[in-house]
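Fold this sequence, please.
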Amino acid sequence: MADLALQILHQGSAFFVSRSIVKLFCALLLVFAAVGLARSQSVIDDDLAPPPVRVMSPDEKSRLAAEVEIKRRTKLALELMDLRLKQAEKLDAAENYDPMYIELGAFHGIMDNTLEFLNKSDKESGKVLNNFKRFEIGLRAFIPRLEFMRHDMPIKYEHYLRSLGKSIRAARSKAVENLFDDTVVPDKKPENSQPL
């Protein structure tokens, strides 16, 4: 009987020891996986190219500043952005990514400058609202071109293109917001209007 009890006790301790070993093995596996994942994330983050500076060339600044009529200035800004994006597409095709980044930074700078210019303009004017619409429609055409560039981009540069796409979407939203602002639809009817 004692032998039987000793045998049962020995089997129970073997089961307990094997369970403890499995738990320890799983815990170590989890720790190694977490450390490996953390190290792989830092390698990707450290290797990303910094975003380009959003600076326009002096020629672009002077051309935009010289244009006082809002419609022509908006069209000029969209043309300059298109030229910068075409140049970036050429550099992307040649796999010359650092100069491509400079072109995209200038593109981003022109976009920000134009949105700021339109926001500072008289938003109650129909001309300004039409140009917000023109700007939004122009920005819409740039997103597929950027996405096409991003597909074959090395991961080092791809992050900024994704960020630029989000910035364009945000700029489009800001442009459209002004079309539905409180100042667009007047609260009161003009006094000299007659009912239909």
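The helical segments are 2-47, 58-66, 70-93, 97-120, 126-151, 155-179. The radius of gyration is 30 Å.
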